[in-house]
Design a protein that fits this description.
The protein is of the alpha+beta class. The chain has two domains: 105 residues, Sandwich (Jelly Rolls), CATH 2.60.120; 32 residues. The protein contains one helix and 14 strands, in the order ββββββββββββββα. Strands 5, 6, 8, 9, 10, 12 and 14 form a seven-stranded antiparallel beta sheet that branches. It has a five-stranded antiparallel beta sheet with strand order 1-4-13-7-11, with no helix packed on it. The longest helix is centred in the last third of the chain and has 28 residues.
Length: 172
């Protein structure tokens, strides 16, 4: 289960230099809290540091070609390890933390090569709570208001499709 706890949006500031004015938009930062649980996805060997099960959760994020993204993940619990990665729209891992880290892991990608829906993966050797800060990209809003608006739109789309189907059937 993933829930958005706070959204800190810094939508920009202006830089003025002489007579010309350039606008710089600072990427927004979104903080998400959730729970990693369920069945482990596999058994991971970490070289000389041993092996353990890996539990994970995925967070979809839309990125534009040339856009940067920064991910910082934190887990709760003594001795817990965390690892992060970013998968491109085709599912290939293109970045992430290099190793599993104690309690927190982060990575930054300066520039993605294609526009599309990417996937942030947060993995841990134990189940439990996590928190992640994502700077850059567009995450789906899972707030109550956003979900209610989405349901309302889906119902309207369904009613329109049903009316269109009924009209087609009546023509026969």
């Amino acid at each position: 289960m993933i829930r958005f706890t706070s959204i800190a949006i810094a939508l920009g500031f202006l830089l003025v230099s002489g007579p010309a004015m350039a606008q710089t938009v600072k990427p927004k930062t979104v903080e998400i809290e959730g729970e990693i649980g369920g069945e482990p996805i596999g058994f991971i060997w970490y070289g000389n540091s041993g092996a353990s099960f890996l539990y994970m959760t995925e967070i979809p994020v839309t990125l534009k070609a040339g856009e940067s993204i920064s991910v910082a993940a934190y887990v709760t619990g003594d001795g817990r390890k965390v690892i992060t990665s970013l998968k491109d729209p085709k599912g290939k891992v293109i970045g992430g933390s290099k190793t599993r880290e104690d309690k927190s892991a982060k990575f930054e990608m300066q520039e993605v090569n294609a526009t599309g829906k990417y996937t942030i993966v947060i993995g841990s050797d134990l189940i439990g709570q996590f928190r992640v800060k994502v700077t850059g990209g567009q995450l789906e809003d899972h707030s109550e208001a956003a979900l209610e608006a989405k349901i309302k739109q889906l119902k309207a789309d369904l009613a329109a499709a049903e009316a269109e189907l009924k009209a087609l059937k009546e023509k026969k």
